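Q: Got a minute? One more chain.
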Amino acid sequence: MIYGAEHVELMELVRRFCEREINPNVASWEASGRFPAHELFRKLGALGLLGIAKPSEFGGLGLDYTYQLAFCEALGASRCASINLAVGAHTDMATPALARYGSDELRKIFLTPSITGEFVACVGLSEVGAGSDLANISTSARKDGDDYLISGGKMWITNSTQADWICLLCNTSDGDPHLNKSLICVPLATKGVQVGPPLKKLGMHASDTAQIFFDEVRIPQRNRIGREGKGLLYQMQAFQEERLWISACGLASMERIIRETADYTRSRHVYSRALIENQVIAYRLAELQTKVEMLRALIYRAAEEYVAGRDATRLVSMCKLSAGRLQRELTDSCLQYFGAVGYMDDSDVSRFFRDARLSSIGGGADEVMLMLICRTMGLLSPTAGAPPTSPGREKRVAVQSA
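A: Always. Here it is, folded:
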């Protein structure tokens, strides 16, 4: 995949936005444990950046996903991975299923204001007892007339304390756990919704993350996205965009850390010579840069397959696995070369070291990515690591894309 002139122009716009609106505020947002989501999202929305690949009839730009990928990669110019995570949760986790399968009425109510930045969105999937295994969630919605009554709880929800609505995965019937779930748009101001206090995390300090509880929350059935029982399938499809986002967002940050490590080791002298004159450091930085370029090529290939409508599960899973592991490897090496300076809490490499650890956990742990890759290679059965299901195309898609 090669970016065209319009992609490059978009990326320059995003980089300038990061330098002007994000980077000067990183220290204060990290210290406060949150950033002003509505203020920042409205600015992104005004530039059309929250609906790049969303339908034009609902306020989006209607472009293909290569433009969304370009936006994501350029957003790596931000020195605050918390912002990248928050934006990705909004654009590539909470809204893809709504944009693809929601009714026109539902998209007008929730998607359009999310594209303009008036609304902040979050997605409710994981629970205390169900993270990677979404078939095991217990949050349920039972019918009561034309409404659902939702009870349960969601854990580790990005944007939760500032979000206006949540794209909620819950059980809407009994039976096969892969075919009994639906996605429902739930306004978080609804009676019976309680958002817990912000959770303290190893990294992503400026990203507000909390638990959300639902106590007999009454929501119209018309707020369901698409058909009842298809929620897990819809979300599995959305995972492809989420995992591409997670993979691509770290590219620019990793390259920046390599450059800054080179600059620091060039200026830092030990035993009368610059640190970078030690081949072990220079060679290691060259090796890490090579790995970043290899990852970028893999991401571009996966994006091409996805945009072409082909099954990109294997390639996307490889991207996600490789990105998480490379970020851990790269930040560990570069922090070491910064020495005590890198160990300080307010250093860029220290912050990225903490933030990058999430990439191997959130959006599907490394072990889940390996399981998916093994399935596509025929090394594991299609149901390995998941409850057995009877034959059926929709069930196989839901299991293989988990």
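A: The longest strand covers residues 147-158.
Q: Perfect, thanks.
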